[in-house]
Amino acid sequence: MPVGPLARGNNLCQRFSMSWVSLPPALMAAVSFYVGFYYLIMFARRRSEVENLAFAITCFAIALYDIFCAGLYNASTIEKGMFWQRLQFAVLALFTISVSWFIYHFTRFRSRIPFIIITAWLSAFFLLGVFIRGVLTLSLSRPFVKTINLWGGVIVYNEVDPGIIYSIQYASMILAAAFLFYVLVRNYRSEEQPNARPILVSMILFFAAALNDVLVGAGVYPFIYLLEYTYLFIILSMAHVLQSRFVTLNREVEELTQQLEEKVNDRTMELFFSEITRDLYAGISGEAGAGADEGKNRKRDAGTSISSLSQDISIVLNIDKLLNRSLEKAMEISAASGGYLFMVGDGGGLETAVRSNNEDVPFWVAETAARTVEERRHRTVEGHDAAGKAGIGALDSLFVPINLREETIGVCCLQRNRKAGQFRETDIRLITAFIAQAASAIENAYLYQRMIDQTAVARQHSITQNIEDKIKKAIAFIQQNYTSDISREGLAASINMHPDSFGRFFKIYTNKKISEYINELRVREAARKIAETGVNIIDIAFSVGFESLPTFNRAFMKVMKVTPTQFREKKH
Length: 572
What we know:
This protein is an alpha+beta fold. About 70% of the residues lie in helices and about 10% in strands.
């Protein structure tokens, strides 16, 4: 019979409606495939993180399920619909197995036996569904076509009623999901994996969607299947927790690397000064070698080694640490009880760089150090009987100019109690030689620091006056409101800048990220409160703007180099 225009129009509308319904699953399948390949590559690079492999397989299973859903929604006959239904049940078994192993590896569950049972049980149903045909699985003799009017369109599901095998499989999947939900809740409450919350939420949505699909499949009420949509939430939640774990791990590695660098720097500096001291002792005591030529060669080799090491150390070490360690080592090898290190500033005057105690520098010490620089002598200036000038006890003082390329760049002052004896000629020669060797490293460190400062200034010059004014306005706002929640986007909007541009120019101008700048202000205020009050550290952390104690502890350690508890113990 010829088909009239009205009938053709109805058929066209129906085909269009079905295509529209199948479009979301097809798009979700593409997303799932992409995420799956991404984490499969990540597993190939990090084989120890097996949860990445389980998550990749889960993504592929979800992608296949979405494709089979799209096929079912486009099926024009019951026979075609049954074909896609069978594939759906097969891939659902694989999905449940893969997501089970993901949760096992993610939560570090104490036993794998329940997961082996789940895998074996659902694998059996997978094989039964593939090889058994008929009423036990799916049969054309049990058609169950559903027609749903939704949002002005007609959706037709050409399905058959599942048999006993698939019904048991579906019930088994629900029980397995309940067990996995228990594992996640247990893990979440154990404080081992606080990031499990998003997966918990997605599992709740999964249960709700599964209940809906059971009721729709049983014909209790007409509605669309929702399970394929909740799978997208499961993927997003899994990806979120894995990414959060990776970011946390990366942050911890950075902190450990920073601590390791500091320890390596300290150890390198110790070896550097130990090598200098050993060489000087050997040279002064005559233990450098039997022959004169051999002694000269060893001295030349040691000098080359020290010179090379001094250049390396000046680059990797903090200038303040280097100066402090120089004074400590000078006091150690001279048995001094106190000391000061003065460096010539940009204006030509002396500046106190390091002192062995927190007391003010005595006037006569500063005066003698200044006179040492003015006279530009290349020998020590001895301040015997200085106690009368200082009025601080019986001390012998030794002033050693720090010379570099015929120029005096500083003065080292060492003091010894008279009970310990006066500085001997050997002490003077040893300290003079030590300071001469350390001077190169000190100067190189200063040059390196100046280079960094000049680079920062040069980068700041790349900022226009208009941008600088905006950055200053943002900084003023931060300094007044740093205890509140401040976002980069909000700051950028307040000064009419794009967030990315604002963040880049802020880093150039301050040499800090926005978050680092805010956290440093918060830490400084927290340190003040810890030192001056007896308020609980947790309350102080929240009062200055931190949202959690671990974040506060990490930021405090980064800025102050000690934990909040250690800082309070030192101040009280």
